[in-house]
Give the backbone structure.
Amino acid sequence: MALFALGGCMSMAPSDERRPMPVAATYPDAVPPSLGQPLAAQGWRHYFVDPRLQALIAQALENNRDLRIAVSRVEETRATYGIQRAEQFPGISAVAEGSRTRVPADLSATGKPMISDKFQVGLGLTAWELDFWGRVRSLKDAALENYLAANSTRHAVALSMITQVANRYLALRELDERLALARKTSASRSESLRIFRRRVEVGSTSRLDMTQVEALWLQAKALSAELEQARAVQANALTLLVGAPTSLVPVPGYFDDAGVLGELHAGLPSGLLLERPDIVAAEHQLKAANANIGAARAAFFPRITLIGSYGTASAELDGLFKNGSAAWSFAPSITLPLFDGWRNRSNLDLSWARRNTAVAQYEKAIQSAFRDVADALAGRKWLGEQVQILHATVGVQAERARLAKLRYDNGAAAFLEVLDAQRDLLTVQQQVVQARRALLSSRVNLYAALGSDTDVSAMVPDTAYQSSPKERGGSNDILP
């Protein structure tokens, strides 16, 4: 046992050294680091302040099927880790045997048929490997890292789902506001068409002008129908994310940006990306690859296995526990690979190749995360400028439409000038709403890109979508 304990402390896995980050030390377009704050304090309920959005996120965390799949995979890897961990300990079983044998006369040493009985009770030790070279321990470590990677992936799935729900909700609010603008424009143009029809009847204007007004009205109605379809598609997508039927009635009027999202400062060093759940998962997968190398290396060394039993045996059932009936067996074995067709060498090469792949995936995850933050920061900066420019453009186009109408009423311009001005005004009004939604989406993407709220275990209890320990027939505790 002392040798076993000593051997269990040995590992042939490469050392887990954190590699330098293959990205810049700071984000582009970021505010100074002094203005930043730890994202751990930015829970999703503190950032997504809209009550309707909060309700949708909470419902999605409870019912989303992708999240349930991620949780089931965590349970699967946890069970796999438990199986591999058990290989470190000896398997002891209670054994009870009884047999009755008849030997014919021609096979009996006495020349007479013989009937013999044998009864045995004891404890048996199954094949138990003494882990001198750390092979079993390395396999256990690999299973543990795979479990931790799956758990981090579950956090990443939850964070991605929160982001998708928020963006779908914002898209729905955008369509509601654009649809309200289109309906208002359609109603206004319908009234203008009524007035022009009356003018044609009394001969105060031409039929051409009336048809141009009718074309404007039909344009607004077509846009309303297009937006209605887009809203229905967006609502269906959000319902799928939420995972349960939910009320998605239109919200009339302008949606206040400050009433949807809270403040988030992104002026943080890029090293904090290491807390992102997808990067944490990639790091655990790299550690699992290192552990598999240790197991592959240990396969080149002798493998010592113990098999034994201890108990009592007798030819009579009532003599099992009498003095002198003790029976035991001890059968250690040692296996040293001499020639295996280079199987162990190929297995080691495979482990190194997978480790190199894991390194590249880890570095790519960091680079992708850095790009996500950079894109979100660029969107927050330049979309903000676009919104300001478009707001100014709306004022200019509204004044242009007013002056064109005034010129037409005074006979100084054709109605085609009014037609162009009103078309451009409706277009830029729609663009303002789209740009505002895109700006909010960039803030949502920045929240996710920075790895916010990775502790999803605190968001919703696992029991909301897991089978109970009684149904599984086991414990719900996390294995040590």
Summary: Confidence is low (pLDDT under 50) at residues 32-41, 454-480. The longest helix spans residues 135-202. The chain has ten helices and five strands.
